[in-house]
Amino acid sequence: MSSTEHEPDIATLGRRQFCALVVASLAAPGVAWADEPGGHVVGYVSVGSEFRLYRVNERSLALTKDSAVTLPATIQYAWPHPSLRLMYVAYSNRAGTSPGDVHGVAVLRVDERTGRLQSADGSLRLNNRPISITVDRSGKHLLVAYNDPAQLDVFPIDANGAPGVAISQTASIDAGIYAHQVRVAPSDRTVVLVTRGNDATGNRHEDPGAIKAFSFNDGQLSAEQSVSPGSGFGFGPRHVDFHPRGPWMYVSMERENQLQVFGLNDGKLTQVPLFIKTTLDDPSNVRPGQVAGPIHVSRDGRFVYLANRSDGTVDFDGKKVYVGGENSVAVFRIDQQTGEPTLIQTIATQSYHCRTFTIHPDGKSLITASIAPMLVREGDEIKKVSAALTEFRIADDGTLTFVRKYDIETPSGPMFWVGLIALDSGWSTNAA
């Protein structure tokens, strides 16, 4: 490191079998825990199948790798239990046109003092890629979204945090095309499934996107509502987040490079967006491979952060080099009366294709993670820019200031997920 999808056949993975797959790395020397109010905060980063723990210096924000566990396949997504010190981590070896044959959700116990991870009972084997997972606020249900074919499952969680067999749903579920995220609204009574659709290609028509909202009661999904302006064509949502107090849901529109805002009242979404905003600094010059990424509303509800990501390439000297575009974090101020977001800043991540980012529990810093290295042309030369973790400080006005960048080698697979966790104060995360 340098600074510069079908109905799954579910079976539990035995603890002894799973433990044999989990390999802890040697602890690296690092800084002491900072004595700051608000509890110890640690970072988790996925690199391929490796789930890494980083210590966080609260004053300097310096990251130091502590340890890691290795899961059976590439990590897709992670979510903490709201009260038990457990992490649920989805993994899959699906890639490109290969469906893969190793898919599941690992249950990892978190040491409350160090943040180090050990396998716990209840890990699941699935038969398709779990692209997104979440846990309801009661901690009683694990929800799993599969992208292709799109599907949504709900698993009960027992008192020890172990998921059981998927709950048979009494209502039929239309999971749309290419589900990309599942979230539970702050009320804990509404589940939102984000289905992106697909762009048209040379031999395939566009697949429409939609946002699905369900009533949620004791693990049952019902009263499905589908929001798809324009019948879903030209509507490509990726991720959502919720205002902590107001009746607003903020949507990252992947295929449109937009932030859209929908009303959410009593579990019902408005059929059309209340506001539509570009996420780009220069929306008149959109390059190939330019899309919107993850989104987070600040805990105080004053700001929205959304990642712009770009990884399009062109041929140069026999190699694929970056075509140009915006890799940045867009910062929006939220009007607390109307929910309207106003773009106040875009700031470069100094890396390529930020698929995930996280906000510190104290709201004063943010870390982005890019998935892989990129070849970049500089005149007649080509240089490799590594995947990276990029740290920013968050000012009182919500704007970001660059702190440092950590180059991350990714030979074992992409860097898909990052999260900052408060171990002994609030046990919470803000990650995508």
Protein described:
The protein has 432 residues and is an all-beta fold. It has a single domain, classed as Methylamine Dehydrogenase, Chain H (7 Propeller). Helix content is 2%, strand content 49%. It contains one helix and 34 strands. It has one helix at residues 15-21, and strands at 11-12, 41-47, 50-56, 63-70, 74-80, 86-92, 103-110, 117-119, 124-126, 130-135, 141-147, 150-156, 179-184, 190-195, 210-217, 220-227, 237-242, 248-253, 258-265, 268-269, 275-278, 290-297, 303-310, 313-316, 319-322, 328-334, 341-348, 354-359, 365-370, 374-378, 381-385, 387-394, 400-408, 417-422. The strands form nine sheets. Strands 1, 5, 6, 7, 8 and 9 form a six-stranded antiparallel sheet that branches. Strands 17, 18, 19, 20 and 21 form a five-stranded antiparallel sheet that branches. Strand 24 and strand 25 form a beta hairpin. The longest helix has 7 residues, at 15-21. The protein is globular and about 60 Å long. The model is unreliable at 1-38 (pLDDT under 50).
What descriptive keywords fit this protein?
5-stranded antiparallel β-sheet; 2% helix; Methylamine Dehydrogenase, Chain H; 6-stranded antiparallel β-sheet; 432 residues; mainly beta
* Level-1 CATH class name: Mainly Beta
| Total count of helical runs of at least 4 residues | 1
**Relative helix content:** under 10%
Any guess at the CATH architecture? 7 Propeller
Assembly annotation: single chain
List low-confidence stretches: 1-38
Mean pLDDT: 90
Q: What is the total number of structural domains? A: 1
| Major sheet | 6 strands, antiparallel
Could you tell me how far the N terminus lies from the C terminus, measured between alpha carbons in angstroms? 23 Å
Gyration radius over CA: 20 Å
- Beta-sheet strand percentage? over 45%
Q: In terms of structural class, how would the helical and strand content be classed?
A: mainly beta
The coarse overall form would be globular
CATH superfamily: YVTN repeat-like/Quinoprotein amine dehydrogenase
Q: What's the count of strands? A: 34
